[in-house]
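During the second year of the project, the team shifted from modelling isolated chains to modelling whole assemblies. The rationale, set out in the original proposal, was that interfaces cannot be judged from single-chain predictions alone. As a representative example for this report, we include one of the complexes processed in the last quarter. Its constituent sequences, exactly as entered into the pipeline, are reproduced here:
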Amino acid sequence: MAEGEFEFIARRLRPLAGAPGALGLIDDAALLDPRPGTQLVLTKDAMVAGIHFLPDDPPDQIAQKLLRVNLSDLAAMGAEPIGYLLALARPKVIDDEWLATFCAGLAADNAAYEVSLLGGDTVSTPGPLTLSLTAIGDVPKGAALLRAGARPGDDIWVSGTLGDAALGLAVLQAKLEVEEPARENLIERYRLPSPRLALGQALRGLAHAAIDISDGLLADLGHIVEASEAGADIHTDLLPLSDAAKDLAGAQDAALSGGDDYELLFTAPPSERDAIEHLVPKLRLSLTRIGAVRTGSDLRVVDANGRAIEPTSRGWQHF
Amino acid sequence: MAEGEFEFIARRLRPLAGAPGALGLIDDAALLDPRPGTQLVLTKDAMVAGIHFLPDDPPDQIAQKLLRVNLSDLAAMGAEPIGYLLALARPKVIDDEWLATFCAGLAADNAAYEVSLLGGDTVSTPGPLTLSLTAIGDVPKGAALLRAGARPGDDIWVSGTLGDAALGLAVLQAKLEVEEPARENLIERYRLPSPRLALGQALRGLAHAAIDISDGLLADLGHIVEASEAGADIHTDLLPLSDAAKDLAGAQDAALSGGDDYELLFTAPPSERDAIEHLVPKLRLSLTRIGAVRTGSDLRVVDANGRAIEPTSRGWQHF
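Output from the structure prediction step:
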C-alpha cells in the first residue's frame, strides 16, 4: 500500500529537516533566524516531468537537479545557502520506492551543501510529476551580485566549460552519438549541475554583474547587457569546451546557446584580472575570459577570423 | 498569439512585484532585509486544478485562494506577511485573458494584505494547471505561535464559523441544494478564505498553541493535541455555525470535519478569557470557546446531552 501524506512526511521528509527552525515539519510554517548584517536571498524554480527532466532520469538525480538549479541562482547572487521548501505534486505512477530514492538524493545534497529542508507541501495530481523548490540563502547586506552592474570595459568571464549539458541531453534523446567515457561525462553534466557557490561568494566585491547560465550563454549574457544597458562582444575561439565536447560537431553551438550548464557568467574590470585568476587554484575551477562589455545595446559574436557571425539559435534546442 | 514567458513576466508579473527587494523580477533571486528583532516565517502550499480548486472557478479567486491559504499559515504562527514567490505550471488551455484575471486577483490581494510578489517561475505543462506559492512573513523573535504549546486546562477557541467552506463546495458539486442568499455565502467561503492575520498577531502572548483549520476541525485539533501530548473534549452544541449553515442537514458534520474554513483554532488558559473576548469587537470577528484541553491523548466529541459521539468522518468529504 502506498504511504499516505502524513506517513511520507514523517518517514521520508522529516529526516531531511534537521534545521531547528524547520520545527520537525510539525507546524504550519518554518522559522528562520536571520544572521545580523545579512540580507535574505530567495529564489524559486519549478520542474515538470517530460519538460525539465526525463521521466526515466534517476529519482535521486531529479531531486538533486531541482535543488541545485535553485542553489545556482543563489550562487549567481553571491549568497550562501541556508535551506529550502519543497512542493511535490505526485501522480499515481510515482511509488514509494521512487520517493525514497528521490529523498535519498536530497539527503546527499543536504550534506554536500549544508542545507536543510524547511517545509513545503505534497499533493496528488492527475498530471505529470511537478516539482517546485524555494531556496533561501543570505548575503552580507549590500554585497549581492546583480545582473545590472556590467560596465563598458569589463571583461566577460565564465566558469568551467560550456555546452556539455545540452550535448548530454542530445545523447539521452538519441540525437547524438558519443563514445565512452565522453558520453557519460556529458550526461552527468546534464543531470547533475554543480552550483558555483564558492565562486559566487568569492566574486563579491570583484564582479560588477553575474548570472548563472541556465538558458544558454547568449540568452543569459543578453539578460546582463539588457539589465546593464550595455553591449558586448564574445569570441567563439575563447569559449571553454570540455575534453568530452571539443571534438563534437555542434559543440560551439551548444556552448553559445545550450542551456542547463549552470556555470557562472560574470563581468569584472580588467584591474581585477589577477585577483580572479588567483581564484582558479583555490576553487579548483577554470575561469575563462571570453569577451568584453562595451557601449551599445547589441550582443556580437566574433569568430576566430575576427568576423561577426549570426549564431544559428539563441535558444539552443536543435540537432 | 499567446504571450511568451518573458512578456508575461514583464507585462503581468512585474507590476505585482513592487517591493524593492523583488529587483523588478530582473535578477536570479530576490533580496529581503529582515527587520531587527524578528524571525522570518516561511510556508509553501501547492494547488492542482481539479483537486484543490475547480477548473471553472474564477481565475482571480483561484489566485486569491492560493495566496490566502498561505497567508493563513502565517496567521496561525502569529506572523505579519511580507511577500511571496509564485510558481505556475501552465497548460495550453490557460490563455492570456485567464492569466490577466489571475494576476488581477493577486493585485487586489497585494493591496489588501500589503504584500508583494518577490519572484518565482512560470513553466509549461502537459498536465493540469499546477500552482505553488511560498509566503514569507516575520514575527518578533520567540513570539511565534506553535502547535505544541497546548496544556491541560486550556480553553479551546475557534474564530468565525465552521463548516461553511465544505458546504459551499458541496453546493458547487451539486451535492447540496441551498437557497439564496445562503448559497452564495457558502460558495464564497469556499472560494475566498479570509486569513485571520490580525487575530494571529493579537494572540501572541495570549494563546498557548494555534493552527489554521484547513483539513477540518477534528483533524487540525488532532495535530495540536498530538504535538502537545494532550487530550481534548469539544462540545457539538458550542460549534459556531453561520446563519447560512445552521439549518442545513450535514452542518454539524461539516463543522467537525469539513476543510477549507481557514479559521484559527487556538488554546489559551482560562485566565486570558477576558483579554480574548476583548478582541472580538476590536477585530470584528467572533471567537467561540468550544471545549478544553485535558490530560490523555484522545480527542472526544461530546453532544448536547453530554454523551461522547463518534463523528462520521474525521476527513470530511461525503454528502
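The longest helix of chain B spans residues 59-76. Chain B touches chain A through 62 residues (CB under 8 Å).
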